[in-house]
Amino acid sequence: MIDRPYTDRFPGKDNYREPKSKYIAHIAAMDEDVLLKHTQNKIWLAGFVSDNPKSDHHWHVDALWEEWKFRGKPDQYQVAWEKVYRSASLSTSEEE
User: Do residues 64 and 27 touch, judged by C-beta distance below 8 A?
Assistant: First the structure.
């Protein structure tokens, strides 16, 4: 299992009773293209479930931020966030 220095920021288990370290290892094994798309998806999902503070998606985006920092590319998290923001803005303006 891949370990990261930030793993201790995410102790315990997720909502499916899996160790949170399992998710950390999962994202650590991703190549950057896959990680970027995954980051976009998780940012969107965290926004979608904003009324549920216990959702795993919230700590997932925190872990993704830590992973991008670990890789020395925190700007890639911002790239993902901006893509999600733009796509949400476009879909909202189309409905008006």
Answer: yes
Torsion angle of alpha carbons 58, 61, 65, 68, nearest 10°? Answer: 160
CA distance 63 to 22: 12
Note the pTM of the prediction, 2 decimals. Answer: 0.89
* Cα separation, 49 vs 9, whole angstroms: 22
Residue 19 per-residue DSSP state: B
Q: Say if residues 96 and 56 touch (Cβ distance below 8 Å).
A: no
> What is the full per-residue pLDDT of the chain (96 aa) written as tens digits?
678 999 999 999 999 999 999 999 999 999 999 999 999 999 999 999 999 999 999 999 999 999 999 999 999 999 999 999 998 876 555 544
Handedness of CA 46, 48, 50, 56 (dihedral sign): negative
> Measuring CA to CA, how many Å separate 91 from each of 80, 88, 96?
17, 5, 9
